[in-house]
Automatic annotation (TrEMBL):
Family, as annotated: Belongs to the trans-sulfuration enzymes family.
Keywords, ordered alphabetically: Pyridoxal phosphate
Any Pfam family the entry gives: Cys_Met_Meta_PP
Protein name: Methionine gamma-lyase
Cofactor(s) this protein requires: pyridoxal 5'-phosphate
The organism's place on the tree of life at top rank: Eukaryota
SUPFAM superfamilies, per database record: PLP-dependent transferases
InterPro entries in alphabetical order: Cys/Met-Metab_PyrdxlP-dep_enz (IPR000277), PyrdxlP-dep_Trfase (IPR015424), PyrdxlP-dep_Trfase_major (IPR015421), PyrdxlP-dep_Trfase_small (IPR015422)
Amino acid sequence: MADAATHTATATNNCGGGNAKKAFSLFADPAAALASARHEFGEHGGVNMSIEASATFTVMEPETMKRMFAGELGPDRDFFIYSRHFNPTVLNLSRQMAALEGTEAAYCTSSGMSAISSVLLQLCGTGGHVVASSALYGGTHALLANFFPKACNITASFVDINDMQAVESAIQEGKTKVLYFEAVSNPTLQVANIPELSALGHRKGLTVVVDNTFAPMVLSPARLGADVVVHSISKFISGAADIIAGAVCGSASLMNKMMDLHDGPLMLLGPTMNAKVAFELSERLPHLSIRMKEHSHRAMVYATRLKDLGIKNSAQFGLMAVSLGYYETLMSCSGSSTSSEMDEDAKKRAGISPGLIRFSVGFVGTLDQKWSQFEKALSKFHETELPNKS
Ligand SMILES: *Cc1c(COP(=O)(O)O)cnc(C)c1O
């Protein structure tokens, strides 16, 4: 049963926050926060909410329409205009995402890239500068290195975020607006020192934006000091490799600016999530913590056993496919696939060697079954590959 207190929302908070500020202080644990988020029931009392599959919404009084467009009546009070703006089912998922990340609000988008590009456009504006980690997802690197400079004169410097001095030196007083990095980097798994980077960013007046795609429920960037958390929901949160989706989690004021009817990038570029997709995803969040535990446990076993075998790189097991966070093990050669947008120098600085193979360890089958398959594949690999090389 939903707690009545979780139904409160302020007039300024339209994007799924409600009492998330309270949730933030009450729940240091994302699983606890998620479980206490408002639970929507179905139209006929179903345990699951109904899918509001409507592009547009009816209004009974002409006066109401005026007040909705003036921003006086919004989704926080159950007034909806049009689903590119807000949709109840998407809003429900946004509330769950805000609870998960311990932010005041969140907004779900059609992809991780649209979440990232929209929030950077909002925070930077033309001529702005971003200090970014040199170890980033290939698409984000390409957005910052190629697309933004060409499209809107937003530029970026790429630095080693383990080197606080390098981060500080890259900040251009007055011009740099954002410090951007991944909590755990794709594909090199570099773990960011979120508290220290956030403190440095804030001392310099920057907004700290963290991509938490690789570590939902494992790390909570906003609880560790970051301002904004972005996600590719397409990976672990979805968990089935069937949906492309994303989210921006942050303050209600940032979300409302991004949704502004006159100049908000989410509102005007329109990377909207479909209500049916939002429903599917909201049914997967309750078991995200269990999935993350099993992914992590099995990845640890694999890493330990591989180390015992004296192997750093390996191949021919699982499915060869890009992406990650699937229940089956996925493997990809990052340098020639998801990080191929980076030039040789950028790859080198990110620590992506030509032979680097990313392993996203799944959880189907028994661990022993999957490990013995892997060992078999490995010995075949040694038979066929190694003699040719020596
Ligand atoms: C996949 C990924 C993205 C892009 O997300 P899409 O949902 O594919 O648009 C961004 N960041 C990271 C770390 C990713 O792994």
